[in-house]
Amino acid sequence: MILLRSSLRRLGSSRDASLVCSQCLQRRVPLSSPPSSLRTFISSTRWRSSIADSQSPSSSLNKTYFSANQGNDTSPSKNGLLSSLSTNASVPGSSSQSQSDTAPIAADIKQSELPHRRRKRLKEDSAKNDAADHVIPPDASAQLSSISATLPTSSLRRKFAAFLALTKPRLSVLIVLTTTSAYGMYPISSLLALDPAIAPLPTLSTSTLTLLYLTAGTFLSSCSANTLNMLFEPKYDAQMSRTRNRPLVRGLVSRRGAILFAIATAASGLGLLYFGTNPTVTGLSAANIALYAFVYTPLKRIHVINTWVGAVVGGIPPLMGWVAAAGQTATTGHDTWRDMLFSEESIGGWLLGGILFAWQFPHFNALSHTIREEYKAAGYKMLCWTNPARNARVALRYSVLMFPISIGLWWVGVVGHGFLVGSTVANGWLVKEAYHFWKHQGANGTARGLFWASIWQLPILLVGGLVTKKGLWDGVWRNAFGQPDEEDDDYVYYDEEEESDNQSPAPASSSVVVSRPASPAA
User: Fold this and answer.
1) Cα 331 to Cα 335: distance, rounded to the nearest angstrom
2) Considering the chain, what is the average pLDDT of its residues?
C-alpha cells in the first residue's frame, strides 16, 4: 500500500485523484491483484474523499473524462473500473455505498453520450419501432392454406381450401368489384334515345344476365392469372413471410394440379365472357391473363418497370365492365372493337381504368415499403429498396393524379356534381398521407397510414360514382317534388307525299310536325 499511495501522490494530489483515467489506474493497480489490497484501497479515506469530490458540481468535467475513456477500458466489466470496483468490493456496507456513489455517474454518462453514438442509437431504435409497427397480417391465401393443412388429407374441404388459396380470393374479389362498378356507371339511360325498331332496348332480365356472366367470367379469369403467378414463383415465395404459406410452397397442391386448375378456370372464364358479353371483353380478359402471368411475373426479377405493368393489369378490368355495358347498346355499324374502345362514348371507361392505374402506386408502394428487406432478399426489383426516394415520389405523384381523373368523370357526364365533393375529400386524404410518406420516407408510421388511406379511398370513389351516376336520381326527384318532365322543343319537319291515281289532285305535299326525344348530348 505504501507503493500505491506514493504512486497516487505522483499522479495527483488527494484533491484531484478523480483526474486519473482508468488505463493509468489499471497500470498502477491491476485487477488481478489480491482482493485484500482492493478492499484496503476502497476503504481508504483518501479514495472516499475523491468520490465525494466527484459528486460535487465542480467535478462534472471529470465525470465526462471518465465517460469518454470508458470505451478504452480493457477490464472484463462492461462499465469499466468503477463497475468492477463496486462488484469486487466485499467489505460490509461498502456495496450499498458504491452503488449510491456510481448511480449519479451512470446518469451523467448517459447524458454525456457522444453525438454520433446517440444518432446511431436513435436510428436503430426507430428502425425497430418501424418494423414492429408495420407487421402485415397474413392474407387470405395464407389463412386458407393454414386451414387446409389442419384438415385430413382425404378431405374434400382440404382440397377446396387449397385450390381456393391459389386464386388469391381478396384480389380476385377486388377485380370483380372494379369491373362491375364500371358496368353500373355506364349511361344506359341514353338508350332511351334509340329507335326500338333499329336497336331493341335491353330488358332488365338481359342486363342482369349479362352482369352475372361478366361477374363469373371475370372472377374465373382472375383465378387463372393468380394461379399461373404462383406456379412461376414457389421458390421465391418461400423466402418471404408474406408468401411462404401459399399452397404450392407448402405442398398442399401439386404442380400438375395447379396447371390443370389454371387451364380450367381460364377456359371457363373466357367462355362465359364470350357467350355472355361480347368478344371485345373476352379479348381484354385474355390479354390481362397473359400480361399478368407471362410479363409482369417474370419482370419482377428483372426491372422496376414491373410496377407500371402491374398497374396496367389493374386498369383493364374497369374497361372490361364499360365495354360489356356498351355491347348492349351497340347498333348496326357501331359494334366493332374499335368503336367500343376508341369511340367518344368509351372515354368514361378509360377514365375509370385510369383511376385504377393511378391507385396501384400509392397502394403498392406503401405496402412494399413495409417488407422492402424481404423483397431485396428474394431478388425482386422493387423501388422500395432499389430507390426508396423515388418510391415515395411516385406514390405522391400518382396520388395527385387522382384529382384530374375524378374531375374528368364529371366533365364527360358520367357522374353528377355530388361526385366532385366526395372524390375531392377522398383524394385529399390520400394526397395528405402520400405527402407524409414522401416527407418521412416511410418512417414514423407514414407507410401504414398511406396503405390504409388507399384501402378506403378506392371504395369511396367506386361507390360514390354509382350513387351519383348522371341521371340516376332525376326520376326520384320528379316523383318526390311533382315536377313535370321537361317539354322537348326539338321538332322535325318532313314532307309526306300522297300519291293517288283515281282521286282528284291534292296538294303535292303536306307539312307534318313530329316531335322526337332529345339526343344524349342535349
Assistant:
1) 6
2) 76
